[in-house]
Specification:
This protein has six helices and two strands; from the N terminus they run αααααβαβ. The chain is mostly helical and 192 residues long. The longest helix has 41 residues, at 110-150.
Length: 192
């Protein structure tokens, strides 16, 4: 099955792309970095949450290890996996962030360097949080599937989610008009 990816606004790509596009680096290095960013984004969006499990040999994809807090005994779990394999996609994310960080240190224009470092630090934190979200999501899905598998024929599993629907007044609204607008709260329930 071939999957087509389209570029949409996301917390991973655009700040990183703007930083890389604005750097005084050779075109070959820029293209390589942009390709690495694109691969990392595709991995985070599509593949990572499917690879995460409590039986993963890769330390970055192991939910038991990733969700265990060594400082808090109530949130510690002993991981029995050997963690002998490395995930090339996770390594790509780390290396790409390291390379961009090193390139930012070499920028001579102080104002651009300061802006780039701020954007990069912000983007890096979002990328790490995205990985953490994928681990939590994988653990939640695994627990939900185990619960559903143990249910009887006369039981139902209900999920509730809250959202807010903003009803636009105009086709294109300015941010000053949009800000602080009241919406219609929505509580959605689904049964399995």
């Amino acid at each position: 099955m071939k999957v087509k990816f389209t570029r949409k606004a996301s917390i991973f790509s655009f700040p990183s792309l703007n930083i890389v596009n604005g750097m005084p680096v050779p075109q070959v290095d820029r293209k390589r970095l942009l390709k690495q960013i694109d691969l990392a984004e595709q991995y985070q969006k599509v593949i990572n949450s499917d690879r995460c499990s409590n039986k993963s040999d890769c330390i970055t994809d192991c939910t038991t290890f990733g969700l265990s807090d060594p400082k808090c005994p109530e949130h510690q779990s002993k991981c029995t996996q050997a963690h002998t394999s490395d995930c090339p996609n996770c390594i790509n994310i780390s290396r790409t962030l390291d390379v961009i960080g090193e390139m930012i240190k070499k920028i001579s224009n102080e104002e651009f360097k300061r802006e780039s470092k701020y954007d990069f630090d912000n983007s890096s934190e979002h990328i790490i949080e995205w990985s953490r979200h994928n681990i939590r999501s994988a653990r939640g899905n695994e627990a939900k599937n185990q619960t559903i598998a143990q249910m009887g024929d006369d039981e139902a599993f209900c999920t509730f989610d809250w959202g807010q629907k903003i009803l636009p007044q105009e086709f294109r609204e300015k941010q000053s008009i949009y800000f602080g607008k009241k919406g219609m709260p929505v509580l959605v329930g689904s049964f399995v």
